[in-house]
Specification:
In chain A, helix 3 (104-114) crosses helix 4 and helix 4 crosses helix 5 (146-159). Chain A has helices at residues 48-55, 78-88, 104-114, 120-130, 146-159, 176-193, 204-207, and strands at residues 6-17, 20-32, 37-41, 63-68, 71-72, 89-92, 164-168, 196-201, 212-217, 220-226. Chain A contains seven helices and ten strands. By secondary structure, chain B is of the alpha+beta class. The chains are: A alpha/beta, B alpha+beta.
Chain lengths: 234, 838
């Protein structure tokens, strides 16, 4: 069996809110192999976003640990985790998270530039063309529709050729039709590049396009289902 | 990847997106205002001083009791300076046809001069066709002499007559109406005779025992600023009995005027810098808020903390360098304009702008940026990357108390650097700090008060609730706005008043002639004559005495390294006595006599001379007055308004000490300009031959001219302050703009109409502006009062219009600016705004 690309063990997050400690994630464990498409589902407040933050090394766990490409995150400092993110991860967010003072092209270029890529401009242009925005490279986010903004975000996420794409409610701010377009785009690119996909959503139909579904309820992992999916590889 | 290159790209993207406008404008403004004043001071202050040097006949005057070494003139020439020797001595001068023993001989102050005299200013010759005299270039030829009008009147001579000076006979070829050298000590001036230096040997007057003063006038006619190094060199070379003086040393009026000029200019620049600092701070904190996401994304994309910090710091460093360079360029332009305004200073006379002001301005820019922008930058680099998922994470605080301390330290440093006067600097710091605290408190109190007002209509309620909702932010915003208004009011209304009062401190009836050497039995008659001639001061008794002991220790003048202090200590003091504190005098330390008499009541010293001679309140001084020692304790220190042009004294005794000592009287009178005054003078001198009358009108004109030019310069520099004030207003309004736009969008989704939103916002801005404007008026009045009373020591008159301008102007300007800033919000679809700013 291949080494899992992402593994979580006994992952627990407790925050103190007021006087009472509040357990947001409780002893969650699973492993994701390269190429898998995984949806994390659950109601609001079930701990989905917290889990994503821990898996990406954006936040530290109270107990338990995460292994990204075989490296335990707890053993790394924030800068080492950042370097790992740079090498492995791409992100798509619910609220797009495009920087308002950068053009579409510059938004896509930024992670490439940070990684020290040689042909950041050419690569970024290429990716904007692939998401159908070749003619909108010089537009600022405020000049783009919600769907277009999310497509820029997708181009930004794929441009760094990540091994894992993490998406947090990518259609949450979009209407149904636009959401569908964006999701189609995301799954198409994912197939073309063999990226591992980790999708956080409460949208059942969206989750249904993934080969595997992790269900969270009140911070606990209550289901790990594999199913046939039109988008699952091979 | 080259981090610098990326920083550069990020910076240029921010620039294109308009994120940096206020920050850059504030930086450029700060650097430009410091730079302009620096360049201006460097170039024009020297020129103003040079104009005053017209009074001396040169830039500096070297004098000695023995012939001066050739080296002084040679060194001056080697350094590109010009010099001309002169010789001054007293001699009896008579008409050639009169008997030497006859009453026709007059003790005369003879000045023998050489080619190029005077180096500064011109000699005016009496010309029947021209009342104000005809200027001449040149000096008496060999065998000729130019008596002044007083000597001519006393001897009854006219052009063409012959004079006997020692063994020489000289022909009168012209009569001097006025010569440039009016600056020297009052008592040295008797009737004067100007002759050619080459005629001196023929007079046979320079025998051992005949006291003469050997002089060398030196002036810098180049534009290369070579005088200061020469002065430094000279100070090392001067031996005992040799002195160097400039007009500042000689004329307290000129000295005081130039000092005030520097204070005014320095303060104007300082206010501009403080305002720019506030604008930089506001803009940097807005930058922080708007770049939280950038920082979080950078970290999320894998930038280590250090790289993120380096990126932001590099961006700011590049920004700082570019803005400073732009500021310096602007300053060069500004000072060129300024010089052009001061038309009476020919630009050719000015040295080229130097490097030092540029370096100072550059340093200011860098200090501002890092004092106010570094803490937010460090906070930015510390943004948790989790923010990309959770927008509700608390914002990082920009360095907390350390950041404020750093900012305060930078301001204090700038003030210390700019305000050569510690007191003026302290007043500014105290005023601004106090204003901010008072503004925040008052705003908080007013906001609390607003709660109690009955509020009609939803729009008012919502608008005012907005103010109350963020009491701290509102208070700070009001404080910053108040600071901006304070600057605007200071410069429009209060500055005008200050300058007007300064101009008025030389009253139109200021005396233009000093009358001295009046004997006690002549006092009543001379005073009557003075009153007949024009408006006259009283006659003050004057006793001459030498300071011989301080606190019982024999005075050793060698202890004063400063040549001016040494000279002051060496020369005889003019002492007087008074029971009432004279006009234009003010006790700044200790107590006036108030009826006390005798040596027990002590002596009152002028503060400046006390500082020079290192005398303190409570010290005991002993004067040798015609062989009698008089000892008294210093019981008060006085500040004297020298530019009042009234007779003033360094040391004043209480009544009952000096009355029995040999004394003469001294007074001043304002004579009308022109021939009437000449007739009055010659009548006075003929009736009382011992009495001396000195024309100080020229000095007064110089002082007034300096004031006029500095007033123009200050007005120009205040333009920067105006811009600074506007910038602070803009930055303070921009600081909460995003929040307002977000609120407005939410309200619109709730169904508020555009009209309702506008009304709510206008209500808020109107109240905000009125409160800030009122506080600004209070601050401007307070600072204006303290400045005029404590620093410039010119009378202050409160201007009630300030309050009206403040409150009404504040309300209008803020409402207008707020409306402009948030107008876009009303047009954008609410969802777009919420998405952008959520």
């Amino acid at each position: 069996m291949t080494q899992p690309l992402l593994r979580a063990e006994q992952l627990t997050k407790i925050v103190t809110s007021g006087d009472a400690p509040l357990t947001i994630l409780d002893d969650v464990g699973f492993a994701i192999n390269p190429g898998e498409t995984v949806a994390v589902v659950g109601a609001s407040g079930s701990g989905k976003t917290t889990l994503l933050g821990l898996l990406a090394g954006l936040d530290g766990a109270t107990r338990g640990d995460v292994w990204l490409d075989g490296k335990a995150l707890s053993g790394l400092d924030e800068d080492a985790r950042a370097a790992l993110r740079q090498r492995l991860l791409g992100f798509v967010f619910q609220s797009f998270q495009l920087l308002p003072h950068l053009t579409a092209l510059e938004n896509v270029m930024l992670p490439l530039e940070l990684a020290g890529a040689n042909a950041a401009t050419a690569t970024a242009k290429d990716w904007l063309a692939r998401v159908g925005l070749a003619k909108r490279t010089t537009h600022y986010p405020r000049q783009l529709s919600g769907g277009e903004q999310q497509r820029v975000a997708i181009a930004r996420a794929f441009a760094g050729e990540p091994k894992i794409l993490m998406a947090d409610e990518p259609t949450g701010n979009l209407d149904n039709a636009t959401g569908l377009e964006v999701i189609d785009l995301m799954f198409r690119l994912n197939r073309e590049h063999g990226t591992t996909l980790l999708l956080v959503t409460h949208d059942v139909s969206l989750a249904g396009r993934c080969a595997r579904r992790l269900s969270l309820a009140a911070g606990r992992l209550v289901g790990d289902d594999r199913m046939d999916s039109e988008d699952s590889p091979g | 990847m080259n981090t610098l290159k990326l920083a550069w790209r990020m910076l240029s993207r921010d620039w294109r997106a308009g994120e940096l406008t206020i920050l850059i404008a504030a930086m450029v403004l700060a650097v430009a205002s410091i730079g302009t004043v620096g360049f201006f001071a460097d170039r024009v202050k020297g020129a103003l001083g040079k104009q005053a040097n017209l009074l001396l006949g040169g830039d500096i005057l070297i004098s000695g009791d023995r012939p001066l070494p050739e080296l002084f003139a040679a060194e001056a020439q080697a350094r590109g300076l010009v010099s001309t020797p002169a010789l001054r001595f007293n001699s009896m001068v008579r008409r050639e046809d009169a008997d030497a023993s006859a009453a026709g001989a007059v003790l005369t102050d003879v000045k023998a001069v050489a080619d190029r005299y005077p180096l500064r200013g011109t000699i005016l010759l009496v010309d029947p066709a021209n009342e104000s005299g005809t200027p001449t270039r040149g000096i008496p030829s060999r065998g000729e002499a130019w008596p002044d009008a007083r000597l001519a009147a006393r001897l009854g001579i006219k052009t063409g007559d012959a004079l006997a000076v020692g063994d020489a006979t000289l022909k009168v070829s012209a009569i001097v109406q006025q010569e440039p050298e009016v600056a020297s000590g009052l008592l040295a001036i008797g009737p004067r005779l100007l002759i050619n230096l080459d005629d001196v040997p023929a007079t046979n007057l320079l025998q051992p025992g005949n006291r003469a003063t050997y002089r060398l006038l030196v002036a810098d006619l180049s534009t290369r600023d070579v005088l200061d190094p020469y002065i430094k060199w000279l100070q090392r070379e001067l031996k005992a009995g040799q002195r160097m003086e400039n007009v500042r040393d000689l004329r307290p009026e000129v000295r005081q005027t130039l000092e005030r000029a520097e204070q005014f200019l320095g303060l104007s620049a300082l206010v501009a810098v403080i305002l720019a600092a506030v604008a930089v701070a506001l803009a940097a904190s807005r930058y922080l808020r708007r770049h939280l996401d950038t920082a979080a994304m950078l970290r999320c994309f894998g930038a280590p903390r250090r790289q993120a910090l380096t990126l932001f710091v590099l961006q700011f460093a590049v920004l700082g360098v570019l803005a400073s360079v732009a500021g310096i360029a602007l300053a060069l332009l500004g000072q060129a304009l300024l010089v052009a305004f001061l038309t009476s200073v020919a630009p050719g006379d000015l040295p080229a702008p130097g490097l030092l002001p540029a370096a100072t301005a550059f340093g200011t820019g860098v200090m501002l940026l890092f004092g106010f922008a570094l803490p937010p930058l460090i906070a930015l680099a510390n943004v948790p990357p989790l923010r990309v998922l959770r927008r509700d994470l608390p914002r990082p605080k920009p360095g907390g108390i350390v950041a404020y301390l750093l900012g305060a330290a930078v301001i204090a440093l700038l003030i210390a650097w700019q305000a050569q006067d510690a007191k003026a600097g302290a007043i500014m710091i105290g005023g601004i700090g106090g204003l901010l605290v008072a503004a925040a408190l008052a705003a908080w109190a007013m906001i609390a008060l607003l709660k109690r007002l009955p509020q009609r209509g939803a729009t008012w309620r919502f608008g005012l609730a907005n103010l109350r909702r963020r009491p701290l932010a509102s208070s700070l915003q009001i404080g910053a706005l108040a600071l901006g208004f304070m600057a605007l009011l200071l410069l429009t209304v209060v500055r005008g008043d200050l300058m007007e009062n300064w101009r008025a401190s030389i009253p139109p009836d200021a005396p233009n002639h000093f009358v001295l050497n009046v004997l006690p039995d002549q006092a009543d008659a001379v005073l009557a004559a003075m009153k007949a001639g024009g408006s006259a001061t009283p006659l003050y008794p004057m006793v001459r005495g030498r300071l011989v002991e301080i606190n019982g220790t024999r005075l050793d003048t060698a202890q004063y390294e400063d040549t001016r202090a040494r000279r002051l200590a060496e020369r005889e003091f003019n002492l007087s006595f008074a029971s009432e504190l004279p006009k234009s005098n003010r006790v700044v330390n200790g107590k006036w006599f108030d009826g006390a008499t005798g040596t027990a009541a002590g002596v009152s010293m002028e503060r400046g001379i006390a500082e020079s001679l290192r005398l303190k309140l409570g010290d005991t001084v002993t004067y040798d007055i015609a062989g009698t020692p008089v000892t008294a304790k210093i019981t008060s220190l006085r500040k004297v308004e020298w530019d009042s042009f009234r007779p003033n004294f360094f040391a004043l005794f209480a009544p009952g000490v000096l009355e029995s000592m040999p004394q003469t009287y001294l007074g001043a009178v304002r004579l009308p300009e022109g021939s009437k005054s000449a007739a009055w003078l010659s009548a006075l001198v003929q009736q009382y031959p011992n009495v001396l009358a000195i024309d100080v009108g020229e000095i007064m004109r110089q002082v007034q001219m300096i004031i006029g030019q500095v007033a123009k310069a200050v007005e120009f520099v205040f333009l920067f302050t105006l811009l600074g004030g506007l910038l602070v207003l803009q930055a303070a309004i921009a600081a909460t703009q995003d929040e307002r736009r977000f609120d407005a969008a939410i309200l619109r989704t709730l169904g508020a109409s555009r009209a309702q939103l506008s009304a709510a916002q206008n209500a808020e801005f109107l109240v905000l502006g009125a409160i800030a404007g009122t506080l600004g008026a209070a601050g401007a009045t307070a600072i204006g009062y303290v400045l005029s009373d404590r620093v410039f020591q010119i009378p202050f008159s409160a201007n009630p219009v300030v309050w009206l301008y403040g409150a009404a102007g504040g309300a209008i300007i803020v409402t207008l600016a707020g409306w402009l800033g948030t107008r876009g919000t009303m047009r954008q679809p609410p969802l777009a705004v919420i998405r952008q700013l959520a």
